[in-house]
Design a protein that fits this description.
- There is one protein chain.
- The protein has helices at about 10-60, 130, and strands at about 80-85, 90-100, 110-115, 120.
- The protein has one domain (about 10-130).
- The protein is rod-shaped.
- It has a four-stranded antiparallel beta sheet.
- By secondary structure, the protein is an alpha+beta fold.
């Protein structure tokens, strides 16, 4: 009787099938968690931009002209920042839009918005509270 070592083809195929199932489940969950973590880039970028707008307002007594002090993108670069003053410089709305081609472009929160009254909104299908982390 011959003593054989190693795995049979069936054992190897079962192992490959189990690994494929695990990867099929784990990869989408991982990608979802990465998107959620990157939302913090939008939130921190908007909070820093709002702080800049408020500092500018205290000096100039208007938000008009303050938008030039806002960076064009967030620190990690996943969102682009824009500022829209309104009401003759008495109000502003900041937006953090996912950069085209980034993984955040497919995020269910969409564009984050923050205004001078502290109102937090999103344009996507997920609720604002969930996207903003509260």
């Amino acid at each position: 009787m011959k003593n054989t070592r190693g795995f049979t083809l069936i054992e190897l195929m079962i192992t490959v099938a189990i690994l494929a199932i695990l990867v099929g489940i784990a990869l989408p969950a991982y990608q979802n968690q990465v998107q959620k973590a990157r939302r913090a880039d939008a939130v921190s970028g908007l909070m820093a931009a709002a702080q800049t707008m408020e500092r500018c307002f205290t000096r100039m007594n208007t938000y008009a002209g303050c938008e030039s002090r806002i960076p064009s993108s967030t620190e990690d670069g996943f969102y682009s920042l824009t500022s829209t003053p309104s009401d003759n410089g008495g109000k502003f709305t900041l937006s953090a839009t996912p950069v085209a081609g980034s993984s955040q472009e497919k995020d269910s929160c969409g564009t984050f918005k923050f205004d001078n009254l502290g109102q937090r909104k999103v344009t996507g299908e997920t609720s604002s509270d969930r996207c903003w982390g509260s």
